[in-house]
Amino acid sequence: MINDGAIVVDIGVSVLDDGTIVGDVDFESVSKKASMITPVPGGVGPVTIAMLLENTVRSAQRSELLIA
């Protein structure tokens, strides 16, 4: 149910009974139509962590506590 060439960002995470972590998107079938697709696990997690660190640093730089 996606257009040819779509970019798919799978942010959903499910844990199967055997402990396997999978996304909400059927990776195998969607990857045949999508131009790009994020894997699960390992897709958007690193981006989320990077943005969290960036926002933490920006917040600390703006904090009056760090101004000497």
TrEMBL record:
GO CC field: cytosol
Please state every residue range assigned to the domain named Tetrahydrofolate dehydrogenase/cyclohydrolase NAD(P)-binding.
Answer: 1-63
Top EC class for this record: hydrolase
Could you tell me one molecular function GO term of this UniProt entry?
Answer: methylenetetrahydrofolate dehydrogenase (NADP+) activity
A Pfam family matched in the record: THF_DHG_CYH_C
Q: Gene3D superfamilies given for it?
A: Leucine Dehydrogenase, chain A, domain 1, NAD(P)-binding Rossmann-like Domain
Which top-level group of life is the source organism from?
A: Bacteria
Enzyme Commission identifier(s)? 3.5.4.9
Its Gene Ontology biological processes? Answer: tetrahydrofolate interconversion
| Name of protein | methenyltetrahydrofolate cyclohydrolase
Species source reads Candidatus Scalindua arabica
Q: What is the lineage of its organism?
A: Bacteria, Pseudomonadati, Planctomycetota, Candidatus Brocadiia, Candidatus Brocadiales
